[in-house]
Specification:
Two copies of one chain form a homodimer. By secondary structure, the first copy, chain A, is mainly β. Chain A is built from two helices and eight strands, in the order H-E-E-H-E-E-E-E-E-E. Chains A and B meet through strand 1, strand 2, strand 5, strand 6 and strand 7 of A and strand 1, strand 2, strand 5, strand 6 and strand 7 of B.
Chain lengths: 120, 120
């Protein structure tokens, strides 16, 4: 791990072999974890430029603006990067449910005694 | 994506080719994103059994209890799984700084105008 990457002021994402970093979106108002996705350089650039979350869809192998179909965009309030720059944190204002299932968050089930329980 | 995995009550993590899911830890009290790491089945089991966060270290290729050296363990308050069960959310009570750099969170730098700015 390079010190410059940890301590510096240069945005220098550590993309994995597939050219991706992990992107984590939380609700800026509530702190709830909304979704975990991935960004390539193009998605990161589009997010920084537009202020709306873009990701790289691994299953569809294309750039994907969150909410492009549903309208449930994620407006970026703040973006942060972690120590080794292989993860991005987006604090967002969601325009609607973040999950394609219609749930407010993709994390709608708690793990309890090894089973899943609907949390909201 | 199987419907059972999305809607069911069975914990059935969708491990990637390396046997890992993404694990995201947030501070249960403040909502701050503390760190992003990975879990294999063993790390998930150890976390569920002990109530303390365990991860799989990709760089060291071994099970890793967060805080095993520093004492800065993450006590699990709640665990959730996302829609397609390839990510785990841990809401935790951290015993100390979560980042190996000594910062409270690994996400100690904001992205501003393409540069990194110390956030805390």
């Amino acid at each position: 791990m390079s010190d410059a990457r940890e301590t510096g002021t240069t945005l220098d994402p550590k993309y994995d072999a597939a050219g991706l970093v992990t992107a984590v979106a939380t609700d800026a108002a509530t702190g709830a974890l909304l979704m975990v996705a991935h960004m390539n350089a193009e998605a990161l650039e589009a997010t920084l430029t537009t202020g709306e979350a873009h990701f790289w869809s691994r299953s569809r192998a294309r750039l994907w603006k969150k909410g492009e179909t549903s309208g449930h965009i994620l407006r970026v309030i703040e973006m942060r990067v972690d120590c080794d720059q292989d993860a991005i944190w987006l604090r967002v204002d969601p325009a609607g449910p973040a999950c394609h299932t219609g749930a407010a968050t993709c994390f709608y089930r708690r793990i309890e005694d090894g089973r899943l329980v609907r949390a909201e």
